[in-house]
Amino acid sequence: MASVVVVGAQWGDEGKGKVVDLLTRYADYVVRYQGGNNAGHTLVVDGKKYVFHLVPSGILYEDKVCVIGNGVVVDAAVLLGELDDLAAQGLQVDPKRLLISSGAHLIMPYHRLLDQAREGALSSGKKIGTTGRGIGPCYMDKVGRVGLKVGDLLDMPLFRDKLAAALEEKNFMLTKLYGQKSLDAGAIAAEFEPLGERLAPFVGNASVLLDQARKAGRHILFEGAQGTQLDVDNGTYPFVTSSNTVAGGACTGSGFGPVHVDAVIGIAKAYTTRVGGGPFPTELPEEDAIGAHLQTQGHEFGATTGRRRRCGWFDTVVVRDAVRLNGLTGLAITKLDVLTGLKTLQLASHYEVAGERYERMPENIRKAAQAKAFYESLPGWDEDISGVRELADLPAAARDYLKRLEDLSEVSPAMVSVGADREATIMLKNPFEPV
């Protein structure tokens, strides 16, 4: 039995979906523990593309159980839409294959309106880059103890009472602060009642289920959304998401005891990307030829929003932060193939701000924005590596690049991805196998 957590080691979009999909073949349970439909996992299986926003990507395996934990915020219509899309592709999901925690909070219509209104009111330099899907306001209500939970849909009188109380404040904010129309509680309840009826068979206690699985000797895989530098407590605040993206969130977001976690794998691209606003010390200008190469060869557009991702060199400062904050036991390096054809590669080893050296991301957001990255240069390679399945078969320059990543990041690679397809991966250490 083993329990493995997969986290993003950068700013998200590192390719967690592919790694989770690959590791799912060894797992019995796959658990999503934070975030909402502001995240997206894109998978390519047998040449077919799948995009998931809420359903754990392990759902593609028909003998696995998927869990949406209490730390996730759920847009009920989006979730049901994903299940309908899967059914249309021949993947029928029943309650034996998917459990939704009754403690997961619901994204309500007013959350989306407030999210978009707040972001729209910010000046360009202060915009967070939110997806506008209501995730932040939903987490605010959760922490403010006025949120509605998935379990409330099973008790409509309770749901209506909580909704009516919430709308008193929300309608005041929408109308008085943002000039929006007020919302009607009856109309919202009528919208959610059939959604609740469809979701009801899937709703249960995720913590109890996972504890039973652990005691039965099952393998459990926890998949995070976004990345370490977007963690609300440990990232480049306020340019972060609204949940804990680090490995500790796997425990709080699912009700799983931390002493039962056996391995934490951090996913990092062989370069760095970021979506939305905020500091990005290794960013390359949009018009830069290498930045354009990473953008086009890496297909760097968000799975959720379609937004262009900002691209830059690999940042070992960011990854070292991820090693410390998550207790990483291994790295999964993705998109190594995207670097093919570049004559020289650069790795950021440290920052400087006003003459002061930083081996970590500065806590002060102004200093983080001013951070200048300092680089080491390594030779690139021209050989096509998409068909390579053994580390020894990579070009010497590619192996040297991976070794320097390991030296600077202070953690060894467990996997190396050399293409988009599920099988285009070099497995160096399976975290589900005993040491």
Strand content: 15-25%
Largest sheet: 10 strands, mixed
Q: Please tally the helical runs, counting DSSP H or I stretches of 4 or more residues.
A: 12
CATH homologous superfamily descriptor of the largest domain: Adenylosuccinate Synthetase, subunit A, domain 3
What's the helical proportion of residues?
25-40%
Please state the second-level CATH architecture of the largest domain: Alpha-Beta Complex
Strand order of the largest sheet: 9-7-5-2-10-1-11-15-19-20
Category from helices, strands and their pairing? alpha/beta
Task: Find the CATH topology of the largest domain.
Answer: Adenylosuccinate Synthetase, Chain A, domain 3
CATH top-level class of the largest domain:
Alpha Beta
Radius of gyration: 22 Å
Distance linking N and C termini: 13 Å
